[in-house]
Amino acid sequence: MSECLVSFLVPIREAPETTLTSLFSIKDNSSDNIDYEILIRFDEDDETFATLIPKITEMFEGTRGEVKIIIGPRFGYEGLHHYYNELAAISKGKLLFLWNDDVQILPVKAGWEVTGYSVDMPTFERWDEILQQDEDNRESHIHVLTPTEVYWDLPEPGPDVKYHKQITTMAFPILTREAYEVIGSFSHSPLNDAYLLDLATLRLDGKFIRKRCRINLLHQPDSDEKGASFRLRTPEYAEAFHTHYSDEVSAHCEEARRKLHQHWLEKH
User: Fold this and answer.
1) What are phi and psi of 128, to 5 degrees?
2) How far apart, in whole angstroms, are the C-alpha atoms of residue 50 and residue 28?
3) CB-based contacts of 50: which residues, under 8 Å, 6+ apart?
4) pLDDT in tens, 92-124
5) Is the whole-model pTM more than 0.85?
6) Angstrom distance (rounded) from CA 146 to CA 140
7) Is residue 256 domain-resident?
């Protein structure tokens, strides 16, 4: 492989169908002209990985997407950051993309291929080309890119609805390798997206280090009729939430911002 553009960091547990759908969206919507890697972490007690791994490797065989897989001890949702840190440690992409099994890259129609016949064929943007352009145009103070995240499957707005159909840029952040190497880790919180967005409140030269990228994602969390994720009701999430807002995690995030700010001052 030539220089790797992005490393998708993908912890998976007992989600074979959504995993294959998610990963296929990466493969199917790429130009297959730019190198990227899929880094996957399975728990050793997950009985699904034995049948899932051959399907994943076959899916990306002959493509520009390189697959690497780690199998190790279970940390649980409250230890989700340990999975991401393991995967980041073996990554080589210029960008590190936080990924889940319940998210897909959305195809974006970009125009038409004029054939001269009665039917013209639609053309689509390719996420890897879009991300390469965003990386090429990224200003030096930007270290966190945020895709557009679409929630199509949530209910319509209403008085009893907790989370309704919406478009956000509040999840699945992409961290630059430069920032990762300066900070020394990917995340210290099991709420990894929130941790990186907290990090992105840093200002360098008076400007936030966060910027939207042009990749569009479909997020389909398992939710009830009011749009509330079933995950939010679990004891594991309660523990993760408590950890994220602890003094220890806040101190880690503040130290990471300090390191990035010092790095900026030394460069400029």
Assistant:
1) -70, -35
2) 24
3) none
4) 999 999 999 999 999 988 888 776 666 678 888
5) yes
6) 16
7) yes
d(CA 237, CA 67): 29
Rounding to the nearest 10 degrees, give the CA dihedral for residues 107, 110, 116, 121: 10
Which helix (DSSP H) or strand (DSSP E) does residue 10 occupy? strand 6-12
What is the percent of the chain where pLDDT is above 70? Answer: 97
What phi and psi, each to the nearest 5 degrees, are found at residue 266?
Answer: -70, -30
Residue pair 250/195 in contact (Cβ under 8 Å)? The answer is no
Residue 15 counted as domain residue: yes
Q: What is the pLDDT of residues 36-57, one digit of tens each?
A: 999 999 999 999 999 999 999 9
User: For the chain, what is the domain count?
Assistant: 1
Please tell me whether residue 241 adopts helix, strand or coil conformation: helix
The answer as to whether 60 is a domain residue is: yes
**Whole-number CA gyration radius for the chain:** 19
Q: 108 with 26: CB under 8 angstroms?
A: no
CA atoms within 13 A on the CB side of 255: 11
Query: In terms of residue numbers, what domain contains 257?
Result: 6-267
Spatial contact of 186 and 9, defined as CB atoms under 8 Å apart: yes
Would you say residue 1 lies in a domain?
Answer: no
* Kind plus residue range of the DSSP H or E element containing 258: helix 247-267
Token duo for residue 104? 């897909």
**Which pair of tokens denotes residue 6?**
């992005």
Find the CATH number of the domain harbouring 202: 3.90.550.10
